[in-house]
Amino acid sequence: MRAISSISFSGQLEDKITAAAENGFDAIELFREDIIGFEGTPDDIGPFAREAGIKILSLQSLRDFEGLTGAARTEALARAEKFLDLAQRIGAEMLILCANTRADSNAAGALEDLRLLADMAASRGLKVGYEALASSRQITSVTAAYEAVKAVGRANFGLVIGTVHLFASASGSLEDALATLREIEPKDIFLVHLADTPTTRIDPALIAASFRLFPGQGTLPVAALYSQLVVQGFEGPLSIETFNDQIRSLPATRIAEDAMRAFHLLEETHARGAHPRSDVQAPGLVEFTAQGEDADDFIRLFTALGFAKTHENGAVSLWRQGQITLALNTAARGLAHSIYLVQGASVSGVGLVVNDMPLMLDRIGRFHGEAVELAEPYGLARLRGPGGSVLFLQPEAFTPGSEFTATGAKPGDGLTHIDHVAQALQPNLFLSGLLFYRATFDLRAHELRDVLDPHGTVHSRTLVNDSAAFRMSLNASFGAGTTTQRFLGKSGFAPFHHIALASDEIFGLAAKMEPQDLLSVPANYYEDLALRFDLAPDFIARLREGNLMYDRDERGTYLQLYTRAINGFFFEVVERRGYTGMGAANAPVRMLAQLREIEAEEALHLL
Amino acid sequence: MRAISSISFSGQLEDKITAAAENGFDAIELFREDIIGFEGTPDDIGPFAREAGIKILSLQSLRDFEGLTGAARTEALARAEKFLDLAQRIGAEMLILCANTRADSNAAGALEDLRLLADMAASRGLKVGYEALASSRQITSVTAAYEAVKAVGRANFGLVIGTVHLFASASGSLEDALATLREIEPKDIFLVHLADTPTTRIDPALIAASFRLFPGQGTLPVAALYSQLVVQGFEGPLSIETFNDQIRSLPATRIAEDAMRAFHLLEETHARGAHPRSDVQAPGLVEFTAQGEDADDFIRLFTALGFAKTHENGAVSLWRQGQITLALNTAARGLAHSIYLVQGASVSGVGLVVNDMPLMLDRIGRFHGEAVELAEPYGLARLRGPGGSVLFLQPEAFTPGSEFTATGAKPGDGLTHIDHVAQALQPNLFLSGLLFYRATFDLRAHELRDVLDPHGTVHSRTLVNDSAAFRMSLNASFGAGTTTQRFLGKSGFAPFHHIALASDEIFGLAAKMEPQDLLSVPANYYEDLALRFDLAPDFIARLREGNLMYDRDERGTYLQLYTRAINGFFFEVVERRGYTGMGAANAPVRMLAQLREIEAEEALHLL
After folding, report:
1. Residues in domain Xylose isomerase-like TIM barrel (chains A, B) (predicted)?
2. CA-to-CA distance for B221 and B208, rounded, in angstroms?
């Protein structure tokens, strides 16, 4: 059973219930605090949910109940009675009980209290789910909570397991977490709370409070736990319970969509071996939308990079080189033009090469059911990605159809293929976008990396597929002055920020390009290179001459060249000699150089 | 000597050097990466800084140098040579060396390498400062680094201490940190890096990388370390070295101003006993700017709350009750009107009661030298606070001068004084505003608290003075949909979000007020109260009747009533019966109720 907790959502309770129901959840857990925001009485919630088509799984959460003495115990029992009343009124199946965190709670008497609660619940037809917290006084681990559940010995008293807490109890070891699960009878588990975390380098209590993500958005192997539960025969409810400011700043519907996508990704990962999948390759086609002078600017840049105009179809021209096709769409209608109207000259679509189209379309349908449309004049399937960006699905290297007229020009050669693409997202869409790409195209996400922009920090995650044939980076930043955020300031949707083209002879290309088409690398960069790497002075001189940047990892070296920007978008040319990264060490220098360009341009606008 | 590291700043190196010099810093440390962004050659940096009037203290940082063998050692020595060359070229006094983090570094040979480096530096007239890192392989603590410094035994080889690292080494214990310092000869300390942290619940390495604040902005007792260093006779350079996205999103000049304010606060805290200070009391005067219908709205609300118009002076009317004066300024000129033009009807000034005006003006001059102006028609000093907000300084309870004509009306009674004020700030100004209030008015800051808004999280810190006579909360949020951020969307500056008025008979006031002047509390709030507290049903019924909220802490109880909002601003009336908090538990419910109001209002605007 796929469930979600109301705490994962933004908005009012009505929005939360409706969004969960409409996105296919079977059940919702209700935080006590969320009931306050319901317009009707608590008794109206059950019928409202039934009407929406969703069950009320639980009331969250009775706290600080068991193991107290004297007046505190009397108060706790009275409070428990009220919570059970409320659970019954809202039509929940179960009351969640968090293990007592009070300093004056004892192990002695706790079992008796738990049995009493179970019996009070049973008389109302309710179950009780018992959950250990890191901050609990006696019951701090899943194992301890399970011991208590067995000792209580009531059929309506069971275990609640949270994935974040399970990992923290296991000190981050997947093996230990799986071993803990294996010791537990599936029938004793009443509920599993699913959440991921961005890092394990934060105190577990702080993660619990502020840094919980949907499975797949963080770095915990939640999928492995999910698989283990399935293998053990667990058939009870799994509920996504997150707490995160970025997630909660989205509308409830979007949150529910993403949460359901996270479920599907868990299920697909579990069934991974069972059915065949389609892989993706490096993008082959990139469409640009532009008008007037901006269109001329793109043509100048395409030409400078060695692309030749091989085909035309009305307002759409194709510029080809190696496996790359750049389409320049200057039509005054259609989706590309809509994008132009909103954000000016920009990328209006990126085409991913899909190995097996029917399998991929099936996967897309499964993951987010977004309609795939036909993109003309290319005759390709089109999908809308994060922030409204446009993705084409190419069955193979793009070949212009008969609707295009050949110009007779030969494609350029030098650049071979697209190395990677970079997309910028508003910070509140970062996690959502990450999940979109992971789920849709079966990508793995590297750990979060922070890149220093002169005016803030750009958060970046690299996504790759197993074959490393497809690479992209997703970037977001909170600072309004960063190059990423300035680009987004101009860009309503489709925010592909730059595209990296692969070359086998970057020095030759650099020698041919005019300085005004290149981003000017600060001279002191080359002084700094000499400090960082043991490079021959004449090699550094050649780099400087070509405005090239350099990086190295344990596998090889990397050469980079950046073009000037058009409305914030730019190309990168890279020559990869065994190197596996994306040149992140050079990104701050690139941002600094672009900042100078932006400021020079802004100064001109003031004239 | 007051210094700052270039990593603390945003922008290009030229901006950083200039901002540091103009704000009174004696010296700046240069991160290697920042040199890349300098327009001239490295040799031009020294003259540029001299011209600006500031010294180059150090080059940061040589890493992974000592204790290597074979080719790695040869490479490290060549690299060290280049770093020393660069330090000399930029005119630095010192090269910072971070203790080796490489897995293949050994204790054996390390001392010899350090001596060699010291001698290489000495031949260039340079010093070397040695700093332990949490991630270092052999030298992980300040004490270990100090042992190494003594063992090296070179006059130009000394210790670099970082406050964040010192606390982490001492497992957060101030006593242990001070004990570590006491063991160190001041002459052996070449440099102290000052930084604070928001929480100690994050891995030290992560704090070092992303969560360093200016002293006074976080929760570490940096001032106690500072005092100890002064007492021990340390006279060497102290340098603020932070790394934080919020700070770096501000302009370099603002960063330098705040950093210098942090220095002054450390110095003032150290000298605390030595010179007398002025305390502040609860605000007495609040000025509102409004025109037309909004002015009528305020008058209606003032009247509903029991204020009477006692004085007039042209377009300014005074509404008084207890120790509170509300001024309504409808003039079409002056600062209040400027504020009206930018953000509409709003608070245009809050008057703090100052016990000793000359002492306070002296303190203000010392801390930020901001010009204090005369605010007419009140005859009060006026200071500009965070986000451009306006603060009046009242010498005592405000008494209208002869420029005001008495209306003959008697002041209201019921409300006694202002309990607290709440200010909303854009997230990148949150830390800066916190430091402003702490420094200017000698306030203490409680720990950060996160309040759940229906559409995100509101970060809140409470500021109080020793006598608890003055209380305020500062609030910020990243989510665009939170009530705080929606308010700021309307509010260019002077963003006082609400003002809490103290009452001794809140039930009486609630009974007199019309429902349309009050924020309507959701009915289920009272259901929830019955769950949380053991309250008599008829007491809950009285709360519900009055639209009152309730909270309790170990010291007493708290009753709250909220008015409707005018352009996002609202009053709160509180009755405090021993309770010391600010009713944070009720804030999410208030935000939810306001969200409904906002949405209803927005729906009307669409008609």
Report:
1. 18-262
2. 17
- The pLDDT assigned to B209 comes to 56
| Chain B residues lying within 8 Å of A522, measured CB to CB | 36-39
Residue B161 contacts residue B177 (beta carbons within 8 Å): no
Contact A12 B454 (CB under 8 A): yes
pLDDT at A481: 86
Query: Is-contact A425 A386, C-beta < 8 A?
Result: yes
**Measured distance CA(B353)–CA(B465) in Å, rounded:** 12
Indicate the class that CATH gives domain B280-606. Answer: alpha beta
Q: B47: phi > 0 → left, psi -120 to 50 → alpha, else beta; which?
A: alpha
What is the fold of B2-270?
A: TIM Barrel (3.20.20)
Residue limits of CATH 3.20.20.150 in chain B: 2-270
The sign of the CA dihedral A417, A422, A423, A428 is positive
Q: How close does chain B come to A517, measured CA to CA in Å? A: 20
Contact call for residues A186 and A236 (beta carbons, < 8 A): yes
A83 chain-B contacts, CB cut-off 8 A: 531
Query: Is residue B95 a contact partner of residue B87, using CB atoms and an 8 Å limit?
Result: yes
Question: Could you tell me where the DSSP H helices lie in A316-356?
Answer: 334-343
Q: Residue A500's beta-bridge partner residues?
A: A420, A572
Smallest Cβ distance to B202: which of A32, A202, A454?
Answer: A202
Q: Which residue of A has its CA nearest to B87?
A: A531
Report which of residues A607 and B567 the model is more confident about.
B567
Q: Name chain A contacts of B42, Cβ cutoff 8 Å.
A: 524, 527
> Is A522's CB within 8 Å of B37's CB?
yes
Q: Where do you find CATH 3.20.20.150 in chain A? A: 2-13+28-254
**pLDDT at B212 exceeding the cut of 90:** no
Range(s) of chain A covered by CATH 3.10.180.10: 280-606
**Residue at token pair 């001392």:** B111
CA-to-CA separations, B111 to A442, A607, B148, B185, B454, in angstroms, rounded: 51, 60, 7, 20, 58
Q: How far apart are CA A10 and CA A248, in angstroms?
A: 5
Cis peptide before B402 (omega within 30 of 0): no
Q: Are strands B157-162 and B127-131 parallel, antiparallel or unpaired?
A: parallel
Are A420 and A472 in contact, with CB atoms under 8 Å apart?
Answer: yes
ipTM confidence: 0.86
At residue A210, the pLDDT reads 60
Cα angle vertex B352, ends B346, B358, to 5°?
140
Q: Which residues, including other chains, have CB under 8 Å from residue A42's CB and lie 6 or more apart? A: A35, A86, A89, A90, B524, B527
Amino acid of residue A33: E
User: Strand runs (DSSP E) across A271-307, as ranges?
Assistant: 280-289
Average pLDDT of each block of 10 consecutive residues along chain A (607 residues)?
95 96 97 94 97 98 96 96 97 98 94 98 98 92 96 98 90 92 97 88 57 90 95 96 86 94 93 83 94 96 97 97 97 92 92 93 82 87 90 89 95 95 92 93 89 89 92 90 86 83 96 95 95 94 97 96 95 96 94 88 65
Residue B95 forms beta bridges with which residues?
Answer: B59, B128
Tell me whether residues A41 and B524 touch, CB distance under 8 A. Answer: yes
Instruction: Write the pLDDT tens digit of every residue in B333-365.
Output: 999 999 999 889 999 999 999 999 999 998 988
Question: In this complex, which of B10, B428, B531 lies closest to A454 when CB atoms are compared?
Answer: B10
For residue A534, which residues of chain B lie inside 8 Å, CB to CB? 75, 78-79
- pLDDT, one tens digit per residue, over B424-442 is 998 888 999 999 999 999 9
Cβ-Cβ contacts under 8 Å, A78 against chain B:
534
- Residue in chain B lying closest to A252 (CA): B455
Q: Is CATH 3.40.50.1220 the right assignment for the domain spanning A2-13+28-254? A: no
